[in-house]
């Protein structure tokens, strides 16, 4: 017979182990601990036998009570056995004779009382045999059934157990994850080995690996990132009388050829010196304009790169975005890109139609083109303010400022200047003579000279401050841009900055922040945020996935055709959302927009320009380049259906810059080049990139160093390259050496 332990019996019956031990010991079983084993028969005897005995005793008590009420003596149990045990013999009791019988007078044993029954109705009955006495029904000795109780049909509210959510920092190591989950490090390492990943105690885990581990241990977690965490600062219950109005922060965006520089210069009522090449020259990236008794802070974001970086880090710096469009040129691709960034930052938008004094100016055409971008003019019943201005003749500049002030009054921008200062870094640079120079915008409180500051992972002390005119100031109020000296490093644009108690506290906070950013960088490099392979894997789990795309092409016709083909894809299970498209190379702005929106960048006959590839690697953004339009649609469809076959994966082997070209009669154009990265081999597959656009894709026909043919040239060495069947090589072109190999796709 099977045996069971005491603690299992207690868990099954819903009682404690001590109570189970008491019942078993009362039944005569030798059990001493909760781990003792007991036969199932003994368990049934101890629990069910005791219940039967108690029920029988209760039943016997009820029978005795009924007998006393009827005047009869309660039956004696085991009387004969008792007499035999006492050694006395007693004659068998004689049955009392019925009334009227002969033996009724003298029968009966000694010591028994005679029972006399008086019948008052005997004289009225007819003579005959006496009626038989009805015997009382014999009660069986089984247990009475429990009376049925009507159940309570009212719905009781279910008490939901509170699920404890554990917060784990992004980029945590195996040891930190184990401590956060309340587990031992060997358990976590064992689970990782079962999942096919080998990790050491100090190895950084990606966010996906941490989530898989938590699911394996049935733990609820929440991964926190440094960018999502608001730096801890004291909360103030600001009274209404403590709040004062602050100047609105206005960001001006638009195409560089649409007069943005001239408009900014006209608003400031200054002139840019002829020797200062390109744009506005000022001490910092922001300045203030006084209009009557009102003050407006303008943010200079050329090419809106700083604005994109601040948007990507969640810094809502600008209160109003002014999009400048030339009346004689209309909406350009960069104008649409500026509108997309302003919408993504959730900033009120107004449009300044510039160059209305030139020939061919048509402000109504600009309004029609922007209406297609969901910017309907207020004159047409929309909610976007339009203002026709001329930077050259200064026409309607006062009306533009009045509109900006009106939009600011609607938002009721206020701040408390009597608290510790906090703000946002506008831009920063490393000056050879002054060291790190940080331009910041104060959003709350008052910043004073000598305050200890923290900006991201860089501590500092405000040793000197200058306003937008370059003059020294001792304090900066909310809405005021200043230039600060005294930081230990160069923080990134968009970083939150705040005042702390002392320099020691600033260094401690900055050190923790710096370590967090490094750990998150390692975790981000462990895997991209979203890729085409992950899309279907998440869709098969039952989650409706939205795939965000950023599409860039070489010409507008290809871009339009590609957008139409993407729109034809079935989107019942996975929704494809093109958040931005444009013509030209893939730049850093596209990468930052993709990072903030978890998007995949698709380039059609274009390549990343500048530091876009390095930024994409740092931010974990995937960039895919194609040269055939149906290949884009095919891979998107395969990703959505989960039928990805082994694909051709391209990897860059080397990068070469053309420094000088030479003509040879028999050979053709020889490109005198310098190997910037990697290795160049003879016969390798290359592409020639000029201004971000691919102009040639072929092979290297000849590779020489000095006058000798060589097989390969490594980084930092000069060489001569002749491309196969291509002679239009110019100075400044970039030659990318790449190789294509097949890699099996997997849905890991």
Structure description:
The chain is α+β, with helices and mostly antiparallel strands and 748 residues long. It is 28% helix and 27% strand. The protein is built from 18 helices and 32 strands. The strands form eight sheets. A six-stranded mixed sheet has the order 7-8-6-9-10-11, with helices on both faces. A six-stranded antiparallel β-barrel has the order 13-14-19-17-16-20. Helix 16 (588-597) packs parallel to helix 17. Residues 76-111, 230-234, 270-283 and 303-315 have low confidence and may be disordered.
Structural class: alpha+beta
- The number of helical segments is 18
Question: Overall pLDDT, averaged?
Answer: 76
Shape: extended
Low-confidence stretches: 76-111, 230-234, 270-283, 303-315
Walk across the major sheet and give the strand order.
7-8-6-9-10-11
Radius of gyration: 45 Å
Instruction: Give the termini distance in whole angstroms.
Output: 49 Å
Instruction: Estimate percent helicity.
Output: 25-40%
The main β sheet shows up as: 6 strands, mixed
Q: How much beta, percentage-wise?
A: 25-35%
Total DSSP E strands: 32
């Amino acid at each position: 017979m099977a045996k069971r332990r005491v603690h299992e019996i207690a868990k099954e019956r819903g009682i404690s182990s001590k109570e189970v031990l008491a019942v078993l010991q009362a039944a005569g079983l030798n059990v001493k601990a909760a781990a003792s084993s007991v036969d199932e028969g003994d368990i049934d005897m101890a629990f069910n036998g005791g219940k039967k005995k108690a029920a029988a005793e209760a039943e016997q008590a009820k029978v005795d009570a009924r007998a006393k009420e009827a005047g009869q003596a309660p039956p004696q149990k085991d009387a004969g056995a008792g007499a035999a045990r006492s050694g006395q013999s007693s004659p068998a009791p004689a049955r009392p004779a019925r009334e009227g019988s002969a033996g009724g007078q003298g029968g009966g044993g000694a010591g028994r009382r005679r029972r006399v029954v008086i019948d008052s109705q005997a004289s009225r009955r007819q003579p005959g045999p006496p009626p038989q006495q009805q015997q009382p029904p014999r009660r069986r000795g089984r247990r009475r059934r429990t009376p049925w109780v009507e159940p309570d049909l009212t719905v009781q509210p279910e008490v939901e157990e509170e699920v404890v959510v554990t917060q784990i920092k992004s980029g945590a190591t195996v040891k930190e994850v184990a401590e956060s989950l309340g587990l031992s490090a060997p358990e976590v390492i064992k689970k990782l080995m079962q999942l096919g990943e080998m990790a050491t105690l100090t190895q950084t885990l990606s966010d996906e690996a941490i989530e898989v581990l938590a699911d394996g241990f049935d733990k609820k977690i929440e991964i926190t990132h440094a960018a999502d965490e608001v730096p801890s600062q004291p909360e103030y219950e600001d009274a209404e009388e403590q709040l004062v109005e602050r100047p609105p922060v206005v960001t001006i965006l638009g195409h560089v050829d649409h007069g943005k520089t001239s408009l900014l210069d006209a608003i400031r009522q200054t002139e840019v010196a002829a020797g200062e090449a390109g744009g506005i020259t000022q001490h910092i990236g922001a300045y203030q304009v006084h209009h009557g008794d009102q003050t407006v802070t303008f943010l200079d974001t050329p090419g809106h790169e700083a604005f994109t970086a601040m948007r990507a880090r969640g810094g809502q710096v600008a209160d109003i975005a002014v999009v400048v469009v030339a009346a004689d040129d209309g909406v350009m691709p960069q104008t649409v890109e500026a509108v997309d960034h302003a919408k993504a930052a959730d900033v009120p938008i107004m449009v300044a139609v510039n160059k209305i004094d030139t020939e061919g100016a048509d402000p109504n055409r600009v309004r029609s083109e922007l209406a297609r971008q969901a910017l309907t003019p207020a004159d047409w019943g929309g909610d976007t303010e339009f203002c026709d201005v001329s930077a050259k003749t200064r026409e309607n500049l006062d009306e533009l400022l009045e509109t900006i002030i009106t939009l600011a009054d609607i938002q009721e921008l206020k701040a408390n200047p009597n608290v510790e200062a906090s703000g946002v870094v506008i831009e920063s640079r490393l000056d050879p003579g002054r060291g790190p120079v940080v331009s910041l915008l104060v959003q709350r409180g008052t910043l004073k000279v000598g305050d200890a500051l923290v900006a991201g992972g860089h501590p500092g002390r405000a040793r000197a401050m200058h306003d937008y005119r370059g003059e020294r100031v001792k304090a900066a109020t909310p809405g005021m841009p200043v230039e600060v000296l005294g930081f230990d490093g160069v923080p990134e644009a968009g970083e939150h900055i705040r005042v702390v108690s002392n320099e020691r506290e600033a260094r401690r906070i900055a050190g923790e922040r710096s370590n967090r950013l490094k750990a998150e960088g390692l975790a981000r490099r462990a895997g991209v945020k979203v890729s085409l392979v992950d899309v279907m894997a998440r869709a098969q789990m039952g989650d409706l996935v939205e795939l965000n795309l950023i599409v860039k092409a070489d010409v507008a016709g290809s871009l339009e055709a590609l957008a139409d083909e993407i729109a034809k894809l079935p989107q019942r299970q996975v929704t494809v959302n093109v958040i931005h498209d444009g013509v030209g190379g893939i730049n850093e702005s596209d990468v930052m927009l993709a990072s903030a929106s978890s998007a995949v960048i698709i380039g059609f006959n274009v390549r990343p320009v500048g530091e876009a590839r390095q930024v994409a690697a740092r931010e974990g953004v995937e960039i895919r380049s194609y040269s055939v339009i149906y290949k884009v649609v095919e891979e998107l469809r395969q990703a959505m259906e989960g039928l990805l076959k082994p694909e051709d994966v391209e990897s860059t082997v080397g990068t070469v810059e053309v420094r000088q070209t030479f003509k040879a009669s028999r050979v053709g154009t020889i490109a005198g080049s310098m190997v910037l990265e990697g290795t160049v081999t003879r016969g390798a597959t290359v592409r020639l990139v000029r201004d971000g656009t691919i102009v040639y894709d072929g092979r290297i026909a000849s590779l020489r160093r000095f006058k000798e043919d060589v097989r390969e040239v490594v980084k930092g060495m000069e060489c001569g390259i002749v491309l196969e069947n291509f002679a239009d090589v110019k100075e400044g072109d970039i030659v990318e050496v790449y190789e294509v190999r097949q890699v099996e796709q997997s849905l890991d």
